[in-house]
Amino acid sequence: MGRSFQIAKIFGIPFRLDFSWFLIFIFVTLMLSMSFFPDSFKGWHSAYYWIVGIATSLLFFASVIIHELAHSIVSKRTGIPVKSITLFLFGGIAQIGKEATQPKTDLVISIVGPVSSVLLAGIFYGIAYLFNDRNVYLFALTSYLAYVNLLLAAFNMIPGFPLDGGRVLRAVIWLATGNFLRATKIATTAGYVISIAIIVAGVLIFFVWGYFDGLWLIFIGLFLNSSARATYQQTILRENLKGYTAQDVISRDLPRIPRNINLMDLIEGSVFRSPNKLYLVTDSDSVVGILTLWQIRKVPQRQWSLTSAAHIMTPAEELKTVRPADDASSILEKFDQRQDDIVAVLSEGKVVGIITRQSLFDFAQRLQILKG
C-alpha cells in the first residue's frame, strides 16, 4: 500500500484512507453511475443515476469497513491488538499486532468478517424486497449492495492465504494437526495456486476475449500473490524469533559520537568510515539520541559545519523502548508499518543498545538458515 492518513477512530481503532482508495472509489462510482444503473434501470433523470451511484459506492465501502471491523472487534476481545483499519485500492485491511495463539481463536476471527458480509447482504436484500414496488431508487441501491456483499463474502472465503477463507483453512488444519507452521504453509501454497489461477483467468479474459474486467483480475491476482508471500514470511519471522529475547538481538557495538560534534567533523572523521549507518549520540557516558545517515542526508552540505548531531538526532525519549528480557517476537509489534524502524533497549533507565527492523530480520533469517 502507499501513503495513508487517519480520518477517524472507530471503537478505538484508527481508521485510515490510503490515497489509492480514491482511485477505486472514483472507478466504482463511474461504473455504477454511467454503466450499471443506466443499463439496469431505464428512464431515470441523469442526476439520479449519479446520486444513487455515489450513495451506493459510499455504502459499499462502508460495508467493507464493517467487514474489517468485525475482524478487529473480535481480535481485540481475544486480546489481539489491532493497529488500524485501512481502505485502499483492493478493499480494506485490518492490521493486527500479532497472530492468534489458539486455532479456535484464529477460526472465529477469520470467519466473522464473511459472516458480517452475509448478514449485510440479508439486510439489504430485505430492504430491497420491501421497496421493490415503492421506491425504485432505494430498490436499485439496496439490491446492488445485497449482491455485492454476498460476492464480497464469497470471494473472501476462497480457501487461500491471505483471504479469510485461507485463514479459515489454516485454522482448521492447525486444529487437526496442532502444527501452526505446517497449517500456514499449506494455506499459503493454496493462496499461491489461487492467485496464479486468477492471473491466468484475467489474462484470458483481457487479452483473448477483450474484456476490461480481465485486467482487474490480473491486478487482484498479483496483489494476492505478493500478500500471501509477505504474510508467510512475517509468520516465519515470528516463529523463528520465539524463545529469543532482545538481549540476543541487541546491537551494542554501534559507533558513539558526542552530541556537540558538527556534521562536517563527523563526516571527515574516522568514525564515519565504518560500515554503520546509525550512530549513538552521547552526552558524557549517557546515550541521548540516535543519528542516521538519512537524517544527515537531509541537511544541505553548506550547513554541515553549522549543524550539530544533537540538532538533527532523534532524542532517546522519542524512541520506542524494550527491555533486555523482552521476547524478540514481541519487538515486531513495536515497529510501525511505515516508520519507527528502530527501538532502544533500556536497562536501569539507560539506553544500552539499539534494535533495528533490519537487524531483527537478519537475525531471524540466520536462524532460518540454521534450521534448514
Please specify the SSE layout and strand pairing.
Blueprint: E1 4-10, E2 13-18, H1 20-40, H2 46-77, E3 82-88, E4 91-96, H3 103-130, H4 136-156, H5 164-177, H6 180-208, H7 213-241, H8 246-249, E5 256-258, H9 263-268, E6 278-283, E7 286-292, H10 293-297, H11 309-312, E8 314-315, E9 320-322, H12 328-331, E10 342-347, E11 350-356, H13 357-371
Parallel strand pairs: 2-3, 5-6, 9-10
Antiparallel strand pairs: 1-2, 3-4, 6-7, 7-8, 10-11
Helix pairs in contact: 1-2, 2-3, 2-4, 3-4, 3-5, 5-6, 6-7, 7-13
Strand content is 15-25%
| Classification by helices and strands | alpha/beta
Major sheet characteristics = 4 strands, mixed
Radius of gyration: 25 Å
What is the number of helical segments per DSSP (H or I, 4+ residues)?
13
Global morphology: elongated
Number of strands: 11
| Number of discrete domains | 2
End-to-end separation in angstroms reads: 32 Å
The proportion of residues forming helix, as a percent range, comes to 55-70%
Low-confidence stretches: none
Give the helices and strands as they follow along the chain: EEHHEEHHHHHHEHEEHHEEHEEH
- Order of neighbouring strands in the sheet with most strands: 1-2-3-4
Question: Could you tell me the mean pLDDT?
Answer: 87
